Amino acid sequence: MQFEGASVPGDNRVLERYFAGLSEYTFFTVLGIADTQLVQYISHLLVRFTKTDAMMRIRKLNGLPATEVVAMVAEAQHRIGLARREVHRHIGDFTLFWTGLYPESIRALGPIEGVSARDPFVSYCQQGKLAYEIASEIEDEEDQEAPSDLLHRLSAQFDLCAYGLREVRRQWEEGPAEGSGPILL
């Protein structure tokens, strides 16, 4: 499966292969999750979010990037149709990325204004699940990368995916386990 925007020249191909290898190893081998479409999506998310502009692509009415989840949710309320779907999908991706790879930075935020959960980590997880579920309900027949059934699975398995991303991070920080061989050839 080729993702839109995933084909990039030079060193980014190595990065794509690295994240694909880490994701496949972690989800297939360590966690026993054999959902190829889900693992490819997560791998692509990692590559996409290596670029700050991809992470900060949702803009507020004043043109500045929406960097807080609350601001992104507010922006989603101002959109309709496929634009609304894309913002909710981005909220899901953003929250999954941060809760999965950098949960310590989320916990350091403290309580989030206007959000019911006092723990920011719990708030991020709740918002991510909800965002993916809302996005899954807005059909886009042309979206090969994120069909509605995949977004629904991301919502239902958000916690497991976040845990998988924490394992991906552990793999890149510690390297493969003794005797398991290289992740990428």
Per the principal axes of the C-alpha atoms, what is the gross shape?
globular
Q: H/E order of the elements?
A: HHHHHHHHH
Helicity, in percent?
A: 55-70%
| Unreliable segments of 5+ consecutive residues | 1-9
Query: How many helical elements?
Result: 9
Mean pLDDT over all positions: 83
Number of domains: 1
What class would the helix/strand composition place it in? mainly alpha
Please state the CA-atom Rg, rounded to the nearest Å. Answer: 16 Å
Strand content: under 5%
- Please give the largest β-sheet: none
| Total E-strand runs | 0
Q: End-to-end distance, in Å?
A: 20 Å
What does this structure look like?
With 185 residues, the chain is mostly helical. It has one domain (11-174). The chain is 63% helix and 0% strand. It has nine helices and no strands. Helix 1 packs antiparallel against helix 2, helix 1 (11-30) packs across helix 9 (158-174) and helix 7 (120-137) packs antiparallel against helix 8.
Topology:
Elements: H1 11-30, H2 36-48, H3 52-55, H4 69-77, H5 81-101, H6 103-107, H7 120-137, H8 148-156, H9 158-174
Helix pairs in contact: 1-2, 1-9, 4-5, 5-7, 5-9, 7-8
